[in-house]
Amino acid sequence: MISIDHLLDKWSAHDGPLPAYLFFKPSVAIATEMEQTRRMLGIISNYGANRFHSTIALIGDLRALTRDDLARLGEAIRLLDARPFDVVLDHVRGRELRGSDMKAYRSFRHALAAAFARVGLSGPIKKGTPHVSLTYGVAPDGFRSIAPIRWPVDELLFAVSIHGKGRHEPIANWQLVPRQGSLDF
């Protein structure tokens, strides 16, 4: 179980918001591809490639979470039946790196929402278009096709965003694992 006391002790002096999220984070190699795409498109950002992620759910402000909230979050993740999956990002719309076929991503989001409902967590699953933000600054409008970036998603992270510090502080992570063997035909 995630220790709320440890988390609160660590962040008690922080005076800004402490939103806690579930998200996917690309490997260093995939983040490097994303960074190269950003540069190729001329998108200027001080948002480092190490911060690229795709948000699944806003859990709430860390200081407002209770032991029960964290226990239910852990139980929902334990109940989650989700295998690793691939995302292929093949275009940019504005500042967002997106994919044309995001069925597996949306299926994961649906399975997570169902697991949350089973443990009594409501409403935190993000419903927008799955994406990775390339910058939080100004970016050219419009749609641009890019060379596809294949991102194997195999881990879910729980982290707090330290506003004003430009970083995410990991709290916990869970590997997505196949629940059945595979047949190699």
What would you say this structure looks like, in words?
The strands form two sheets. A four-stranded antiparallel sheet has the order 2-1-7-8, with no helix packed on it. The chain has a four-stranded antiparallel sheet with strand order 5-4-3-6, with helices on one face. It has four helices and eight strands, in the order H-E-H-E-H-E-E-H-E-E-E-E. Helix content is 28%, strand content 30%. By secondary structure, it is of the alpha+beta class. The chain is globular, with a radius of gyration of 17 Å.
Q: Which structural traits does this protein have?
A:
globular; 185 residues; 8 strands; single chain; alpha+beta; 4 helices; four-stranded antiparallel beta sheet
Give a quick rundown of the structure.
With 185 residues, the chain is of the alpha+beta class. 28% of the residues lie in helices and 30% in strands. A hairpin with a 4-residue loop joins strand 7 and strand 8.
